[in-house]
Amino acid sequence: MRLxxxxxxxAGKGTQAKKLIEKSGIPQISTGDLLRAAVAAxxxxxxxxxxxMDKGELVPDRVVLGMVRERLGQNDCKKGYILDGFPRNTAQxxxxxxxxxxxxxxxxxxxSVDVPFEDLMKRLTGRRTCKSCGQMYNVYSNPPKKEGACDxxxxxxxxxxxxxxxxxxxxxxxxxxxTAPLMDYYKKKGILKSVTGVGSIEEIFxxxxxxxxx
Length: 214
Ligand code: AP5
Ligand code: MG
Ligand code: ZN
Description:
This protein has 214 residues and is of the alpha/beta class. The longest helix is centred in the last third of the chain and has 15 residues, at 165-179. The strands form two sheets. The protein has a five-stranded parallel β-sheet with strand order 2-3-1-4-8, with helices on both faces. 49% of the residues lie in helices and 15% in strands. Helix 1 (13-24) packs across helix 9. The termini are close together. The protein has one domain (2-26, 79-212): Rossmann fold (3-Layer(aba) Sandwich), CATH 3.40.50. It binds BIS(adenosine)-5'-pentaphosphate, magnesium ion and zinc ion. The site of magnesium ion has 5 residues, from helix 1.
């Protein structure tokens, strides 16, 4: 499986990617997660990225492309990859195509997870993530059994810095103007699939699996 996951902020890309990893063992490459790790580690790249992320804007292509190129070159990607949150604009999509051609591992599918915008604000303001294992929760729709602690590993849950109402609004605008056009990009290539991302996480996962044939 060589897959790009498309969808607005909060559509459930990360949630569905984690289920796909469990099922197929194929690695998830989330540019958002890689950038947050760089911010937490305090690297120069992380410092540069943080100023854009806090505003809900895209981090410059040069930064993101370098990170993705390095990650796709690692051995575990030979069996496939799930790109989550990348590409995010046409320039990134074109650069990705070139990169994958050089590596000899072109995309099979781009899967769009579609959720009405009015649902996304609640999903994002309610999201909590485990510091230790990355498992996602939602205080409204999918709360942990014990408040503030991860069901899987007991780790502490945190709220992302960019999950504030003002920043979310900006992220949704950026999605509409820069990322949504990628649906057409992949449709023209004949590899676009889509599922409705409304319903339980399990229901959506079974639609994802039938769309991808996994
Ligand atoms: P990134 O980390 O990619 O964030 P995003 O695209 O805004 O998407 P999210 O991670 O917020 O949403 P998701 O679709 O993964 O949803 P999730 O599964 O968590 O990017 C962050 C920032 O980094 C960007 O703004 C940018 O600055 C930078 N960046 C990243 N990539 C970049 C790139 N390529 N180029 C430039 N800059 C880049 O689910 C959300 C919540 O909903 C959770 O609480 C979950 O439990 C809940 N939920 C999931 N499914 C359901 C359901 N079916 N019903 C109810 N609730 C549900
Ligand atoms: Mg995510
Ligand atoms: Zn955990």
